[in-house]
Please model this.
Amino acid sequence: MGKRKSRSSKLAAQPKKAPKLEKVFTCPFCNHPESVKCLIDLKLGYAEASCLICEESYCTVPHNLTAPTDIYHEWIDECERANDDARRSRR
Model:
């Protein structure tokens, strides 16, 4: 005869859920929370992050693994590069 499984062994066998990624973000220009939405169209080769308040936007070319967080962070990186270039040109 077999032994009954305990509850802890049943819980340990279940896979853990992956955390959900954000889909709306804070605008780097106007600082409004949850105002930046990302749109990805792989058929047209177009990915855009745009603010609904100040209407600033960033476009890039996506690939199969592109997620909204990738587009937003590319936009932030481009803003930082532009600010660094502006600081260097002032000197």
In short: Strands lie at 24-25, 36-41, 46-51, 57-60. The CA atoms of residues 42 and 48 lie 11 Å apart. Residues 36-90 form a domain with the N-terminal domain of TfIIb fold (CATH 2.20.25.190). DSSP finds two helices and four strands in the chain.
